[in-house]
């Protein structure tokens, strides 16, 4: 733009040890435009040119974060006080041990049932499997390449299903309970990690982020002394989101971006509003929370999530990819995306570096393991009751009665409020929650709603996304 000035970012060090180091960020230009100097590659991208393509990848990444790992940039009203939880606590969920099984398109995932205890929930498992498959077949009929789903009752008994094609080139079906990118469900893992630190007395929810990351969170209208940990968890911080439009994501699929790259790009933009003034879904919040976790825990956030959540739950196919890790570790369907993030020709985007999403949306899991994690939040396996109550303290999202807690979304379904999250990242959409009766469900598709014409039309008409409709059917039977 004719009147814009460059925003320069001075990089003092170019390895991951500089996540907390001061970086000089001089901003100017009312339109928030920015340019980024070339930067030396990280170890994960050794050998990559550090000239103009690198600068371009940073700009593309900034644009991508706007909506590719979130549930939207919803903004709703003023937030003057924390609301109490909107529904009674989910029913107690017993310990579970779910096996990830690949192969058939519909299969029961069981654990031993105590003598005399029924494994049914009103209908036979065969009927549950048929219903689940029929539900996700509707998504394939609506134009999604493939879909996977799992439903786990409150006792840990699970059924799974797949539909469509897991590989458009070969016609192969999606693997049952295959690994998928879970996008913003990553936020819930990070939120649980932070709540564990709260329980340990290492973090206080209403303490300013400045206490834990001194001098780091600052910019145009941004003051880390006025933003609390709770506001970051709840998307009421006012931190700037990187919203520059949707680029050709394929051009940056091989690029590694450090958390500080992403944060610094965000902080070249002005604050969206004063801390606590309202809710606006902002991925930057969880980049900051990831840095907080690393500063307090003194270990990489991926390592902490593995040690404190993944291993204790016995999850085998849930992980945060390491630097430069583009491929899946286990069986998985292929993911597809379009060049302009709109309905159109789908192209394979399966292998991609998700580092730009990091603590806001880079993780991988399976439908059954994501169910187990979500149920474990509420059954006492991971957190105490005080922490669970804090996570359910919510603010309105403005989405048909949905509310946002601390890394949790309360979805208003036909059978009541279901707590979960959901995630969007190129090549994968997940809609998931734990229902009022303690049962959990995950609905995953191998492309995101923005690339699907019927889903786009449904949202434009003011209706729920097809994935949320499928989630309602899975949990409520309607």
Largest sheet: 10 strands, antiparallel
Helices, by number, come to 12
Compute the number of strand runs.
Answer: 20
Shape from CA axes? Answer: globular
Q: By CATH's scheme, which homologous superfamily of the largest domain applies? A: DD-peptidase/beta-lactamase superfamily
Could you list the spans in which at least 5 consecutive residues all have pLDDT below 50?
A: 1-17, 22-66, 78-122
Radius of gyration of CA atoms, rounded to a whole number: 21 Å
Domain count: 2
Mean pLDDT: 81
Give the name of the CATH architecture of the largest domain: 3-Layer(aba) Sandwich
Domain Beta-lactamase-related: 133-457
Region (Disordered): 22-52, 105-130, 328-347
Keywords: Hydrolase, Membrane, Transmembrane, Transmembrane helix
Transmembrane segments: 58-79
Short structural description:
The protein is an alpha+beta fold and 478 residues long.
Structural write-up:
With 478 residues, the chain is of the alpha+beta class. It folds into two domains: 33-80 and 190-297, Beta-lactamase; 106-112 and 119-184 and 317-476, Beta-lactamase. The protein is 27% helix and 15% strand. It contains twelve helices and 20 strands. It has helices at 52-64, 125-141, 186-199, 229-234, 259-266, 284-297, 301-313, 358-361, 367-378, 385-392, 453-460, 466-476, and strands spanning 8-9, 25-26, 75-78, 106-109, 146-152, 158-164, 180-181, 218-219, 222-223, 278-280, 336-337, 347-348, 364-365, 395-396, 403-404, 409-413, 416-420, 423-425, 428-434, 440-445. Strands 4, 5, 6, 14, 15, 16, 17, 18, 19 and 20 form a ten-stranded antiparallel beta sheet that branches. A two-stranded antiparallel sheet has the order 1-2. Strand 5 (146-152) and strand 6 (158-164) form a beta hairpin. Helix 1 packs across helix 5 (259-266), helix 2 (125-141) packs antiparallel against helix 12 and helix 3 (186-199) crosses helix 7. The radius of gyration is 21 Å and the shape is globular. It holds the Pfam family Beta-lactamase. Residues 133-457 form the Beta-lactamase-related domain. InterPro entries: AmpC-like, Beta-lactam-related, Beta-lactam/transpept-like. Residues 32-52 have a biased composition (Low complexity). GO terms for molecular function: hydrolase activity.
